[in-house]
Amino acid sequence: IPAGSVAAVDLGATSGRVIVGRVGPDTLETTTVARFANDPIRLGDDLHWNVLGLYSAALAGLREAFRAEPAIASIGIDSWAVDYGLLRAGRLLGTPFHYRDERTARGVAAVHAHLPHAELFARNGLQFLPFNTLYQFAAEDPFLVNAGDTALMIPDLLGFWLTGSARAELTNASTTGLLRWLDHAWDDSLIERLGVPRDILPPLIAPGEVLGALRPEVAASLGGQAPVVAVGSHDTASAVVAIPMQADAAAYISCGTWGLVGVEVERPVLTPDALAANFTNEGGVDGRVRLLHNVMGLWVLSETVRGWERQEGHAIDLPTLLDSAAEVPASAVPVFDINDARFLPPGDMPARIDAWCSEHGVRAPQSRAEYTRSIVESLAQAFAEATATAGRLGGIDVRTIHIVGGGALNALLCQRTADRAGVPVLAGPVEATALGNVLVQARAAGFLSGSLESLRDLAARTHAPRRFDPQA
Ligand code: LRH
């Protein structure tokens, strides 16, 4: 089998990148050809994604990719889940909302008035998150939903602009709450009960299938032609592909803005226990199930640091801040419930931590180093608890915990997760999402063959993780 190259567009909640991956049976190398900020925009009370800016940055990155490697075999796109754009006759209606926009509360109230969460869970297997797409549809301006003829999730929207082909990639569609994972089909009766116009949901497409060739004018502007191939377009689904794990004995934490903590299983777990633990069953590549829980992730720390940076008027060096936090004894800071819904929207995190501490009668952190340590300890505790729950619910004896994504660079967090879980942590790859995107494309292009296990084996051989053993 020859080696070859593919391009991955990976959009995260704070930044995006375009990566060229070179892949063969013993090769998995990546070059980042573009990296750009993803800054949400507030318009009045509303919080939006700058999708046109992201598309334009992705195009510039792909142009770079073709310059670096003219023989790119395909392009794959992934991003965060749940958000979408509405279209009519191929034109975008309105500006896609950010899932942290507070309109979702309205949608939750409207849906739960006639369909309680337990009933939804029995059908779609999803944890309750106020921003699941079905609640966003319920909060949407009815004028737009009824005028629209197509709703496209963010990666599908970019794929549509590149190719002219409108499809819904399966792993991301599983985060809408409107899909039956077991038969890989839209849940028509649920969609009808929710009053969502059935026609706005496009036909599904599975990871590895070809979406379409670049539209001629797009190819001309990029200086190259290649098909867009569906990948695990939900970023977490792509990340899970590239985790160098033994899925029957490991838990994972895909740690960026969110900490997605779970295990991989063959069939959805819809037990009362899973419902009570608010775990989700999201669709994975090759029909696997990602049984996981959304833990708040690095969001609380990044938002805290952003607030301090605004006060100071200059950037704060994260490694230096984490070093100062490592000097603070863990016993000196409070462990707060980092999953508390008050930490979801953007805003003053230290003030919210103070409020939580005063409500719970504990001493609030007193310095920046203490806040940082308190956030890391609280995150590590939530990670330890969620990995244990994931193992129990999924029937998996968790002997290692893999941390991938940006969080794998945070040594204090990795160590404290190992300590609090009493299980070794293997950290890396940092770019698991982009690697998973690349691996699925490479297999579709014939540069690799085999199961997810063989893709993970290649990731393990080429990206050795860093080990953190639990300390007493
Ligand atoms: C992580 C992520 C996560 C979703 C959230 C909206 O980027 O895709 O899996 O729950 O964003």
From TrEMBL:
The lineage of its organism: Bacteria, Bacillati, Actinomycetota, Actinomycetes, Micrococcales. Belongs to the FGGY kinase family. Residues 8-241 form the Carbohydrate kinase FGGY N-terminal domain. It comes from Microbacterium memoriense. It comes from the Bacteria. PANTHER family: SUGAR KINASE, XYLULOSE KINASE. This is Rhamnulokinase. Pfam families: FGGY_C, FGGY_N. Keywords: ATP-binding, Carbohydrate metabolism, Kinase, Nucleotide-binding, Rhamnose metabolism, Transferase, Xylose metabolism. The keyword Kinase applies. Residues 251-445 form the Carbohydrate kinase FGGY C-terminal domain.
